[in-house]
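Input set for joint prediction.
Command: fold jointly, output tokens.
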Amino acid sequence: MKAYLDNGATTQVAKEVAQAMQTLLTKKFGNPGSLHSFGEEAKSEMEKARAIIAKKINADTSEIIFTSGGTESNNLAIRGIAYKNKEQGNHIITSAIEHPSVLRTCEALEKEGFKITYLSVDKEGFIDLKKLEEAITPQTILVTIMHANNEIGTIQDIESIGKICKAKNVTFHSDIVQSFTKVSIDTKEMNIDLLSLSAHKIHGPKGIGVLFIRKGVRLKPLFTGGEQENKIRAGTENTSGIVGFGKAVELIKESDLEKMKQLRDNLIKGLEKIPNTIINGPRGDKRLANNVNASFKYVEGESLLYHLDGKGVAVSTGSACSSHSLSPSHVLISIGLKPEVAHGSLRLTLSRYTTKEEIEYTIKTLKEVVEGLRKISPLAR
Ligand SMILES: *Cc1c(COP(=O)(O)O)cnc(C)c1O
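tokens >
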């Protein structure tokens, strides 16, 4: 038996997505910038995908810019706004639990003279909206707050954040890589100026992302080169990736979401039966449909991961990006876990392909592994 519960790191490409991409790679292979029929054919497929993605977030197609993924979209949004507006102000507001592609970018800007406010979060991972409002000054040029957290699944109230930013006339960016297609987004109703998306978290290919840029919002491009993507992102478009992304969005069904939530809650219930286990992050509708995060006291997350892997269960400690470092997750520390408890934590993330059997097997295996490790752990005595 195998159980892949690391869909927060990446997902299996859907068969239909791979097929759609194959056509672009081998048949409709033209450069979308070319004026002949090969180019036009590729461009037409690319524009269909753009329209599908635009519709999903209630945006115009002209507001959708293709990038190489969530990381580039976050960099383009944050650096692009910072460099464009540095005469108007130098202050950016973010949260302490952002993805590294936001946090490290903000830290880099700090070294370049920008001032960054890192809003703290409560024990479930929510920012305080009052504190956000108070943090905004006439110098503030950007608020960047993620929608759903990739480690503990907390879904921020971005509608209220959008309202606050609009009232204060501050540009609002959100990293919605984890929540995209799991929580509905309406850029017009939610007063969002910039959004980062990535295909490989929703059964699309790796290396393709989107930055939504509201009409009228100006930013400085990161690359110099050709005039692709409204002159905002130079470089020949990744047409097969784009078409794969469009197809991945097209395949999303509401019923899959309900099934995922059910399995998520079964998994939480199963894990809670293991003694000395803490479920991190909120419950119910304020938690991402496919995310579970738990701390198992007196054991090391890394040992858990390796023993589980030996039994065919793939999970992660924290996020994939930080799992090679030994410092405890910045997210778990931010919600108030002690470092030793944070070290004993696992993230288990589902997809629409996750089965009941995988969840049952994971619960059983995890229980055995935790009990086995605790028997030999000096911490447990
Ligand atoms: C995966 C992820 C990213 C990075 O996206 P890539 O396409 O892998 O660069 C950014 N933000 C969040 C919340 C993510 O989960």
